Structure formats: structure tokens, C-alpha cells
Amino acid sequence: MIIDTHVHIGRILNFNMKKSEVLYSMERYGIDYSIVSDIRAAEFGHHHDRIPKILRRSQLQCAESVVDFAKEHPDKIGAALWVRPYEETADEPLYDFIRKNRRYVKAIKVHPFHSCVKFDSRQMEPYIDLAREFSLPIVSHTGGSDDAACIRVYNMAKRHPDVNFVMVHMGLGTDNNEAIYLIGKLDNLYGDTTWVPAENALRFIRRNGPDKLMFGSDNPIDGKDTYLDNGKGQTSMYQKYFHELPRFLSQEDYSKLMYKNAQKVFDLA
């Protein structure tokens, strides 16, 4: 079994990730369940320029999109609600939406880089309260800016030990060393493997044990065959997760990485 904890739909910036691509790739590459967020909730572009108003979608609109997807495929798709802390907050309409759709909602998703909000700032506190109210984990992008620094996710997780946090990417574009160290310090802080080399994932498990890391991919960021290649003719790093890591981990530890830890953190069992 494989659970991918980091999958997207939506069209914005240079991304166009379709529901059909998610479903195709799951069938083609043996992914049993995906936790999906809608990238149209991004508030700023790659260079921290504001998303044009005509292209903006509210966090509630994006929540409805992924929950509708989950309702269409409840055995395959769970919803991560991508929130917009720069422009919005955890208001009553969002609370009410989750109350009505809690069975489909599996996480609160934050992208500090594309919101230009420091993850450990006061602006994030209402969303921590929201996650606590519904016993949801918070998954946060890390890497690329000070707003999205790994230490900020650690700070918030330390401040709120009763909420689970997932450090997505574990510091995108780095050697992952800082994230590996920080995640090992807190019981309520986890990592995912999105764009993390398999060798670093193995190093993480050897240092922190097998219970703190979950498979994630950003599928279908490179198209419907993201699990196979990067769209530029190069083999995807996720092929090592599928075909090489089982040789270096016990069956139980590999199962924890690929689905059992996700079942626990996202309450999927």
C-alpha cells in the first residue's frame, strides 16, 4: 500500500495540475490514497509578486474544490485545505465548512512562501486553533524563504504540543540536515519526502527512527507521470522510493514510511 500525503490540483502561475492526472497516476503507479490541496489558494507568485486579483480564489472556494474531489472518490482522495493567512483568517465560514465535511478533510495546508507570512507569526495562530478544534494536522511547505524556514515550523510545533505538524520538503533545496535534526526533537513534528532524495530519507530514519517520516511527492507537478520522470527526460527520484528503499529497510519500517505513519497522523486507519 502507498499513501501520497502531498498532491495537488489547480491551475495558477506555471502550474496546471488536473484531477484526471491525479487519478491516472494513482492507477498507473500503484498509489492507493492521495491527500490533495488546491494550489489556486496561493497568494503570491514565485518572486513574491501578488497574484492578480482576477486569478485569486478564496480559501473556501479551494476547500470546496478539493472536498468535491474527495466526495467523488472517497476511497482514494482526502482533502487538505490550503489556507490564505495573508488575506484571510480562520473565520466562521471555514469552521462551518469543516464541520459539515469533516469526514473528507484530512489536514490544514499552509504555504508560507506563497503567502508571505512567517509560519510562527501571530497571523497563523487562528489556524492552529482551527486545527486543534477538529484534531487536524497542519502541513506546511518549508524552504525558499525566511517565512518558510524549517525553524519556524519547529517553533510553532514546540509552542503547540497538542497539534501535529508536518514539515513538507524538510527544507526544499537543502541537504535536509536542519529538518532532520529539528523533527527529531519534538514528538508532534513530522517530515514528508517531497523532493527529498531517498538517501536523505534513509538517513532520517536511521537518526530519528521509522515513525516520523511520510511519503509525499507534489504529484502531478511534472505531469501525469511525475512518479516516473521529471518531464525533462530524467528519472523521478520517487522511483528509488518504490524500487530501492525496500532493500535498505525492514518490511515494517518501509510500510511505516509509505503508508502506516500517514494513517496515524492523518487519521486514515
Could you outline the blueprint of secondary structure elements for this entry?
Layout: E1 3-12, E2 15-17, H1 19-29, E3 33-38, H2 59-72, E4 77-82, H3 92-101, E5 105-110, H4 112-115, H5 125-134, E6 138-141, H6 150-159, E7 165-168, H7 177-183, E8 189-192, H8 198-208, E9 213-214, H9 238-243, H10 251-265
Parallel strand pairs: 1-3, 3-4, 4-5, 5-6, 6-7, 7-8, 8-9
Antiparallel strand pairs: 1-2
Radius of gyration: 17 Å
Q: Given the C-alpha coordinates, what overall shape results?
A: globular
Spell out the helices and strands N to C: EEHEHEHEHHEHEHEHEHH
**Count of β-strands:** 9
Fraction of residues in β-strands: 15-25%
End-to-end gap = 12 Å
For the biggest β-sheet, the strand order reads 2-1-3-4-5-6-7-8-9
| Structural class based on helices, strands and sheet pairing | alpha/beta
How would you characterize this protein structure?
The chain has ten helices and nine strands. The model has no long low-confidence stretch (mean pLDDT 97). The chain has 269 residues and is of the alpha/beta class. Helix 7 (177-183) runs parallel beside helix 8 (198-208). Helices cover 36% and strands 17% of the residues.
Task: Based on the model shown, name its key terms.
9 strands; 10 helices; 269 residues; alpha/beta
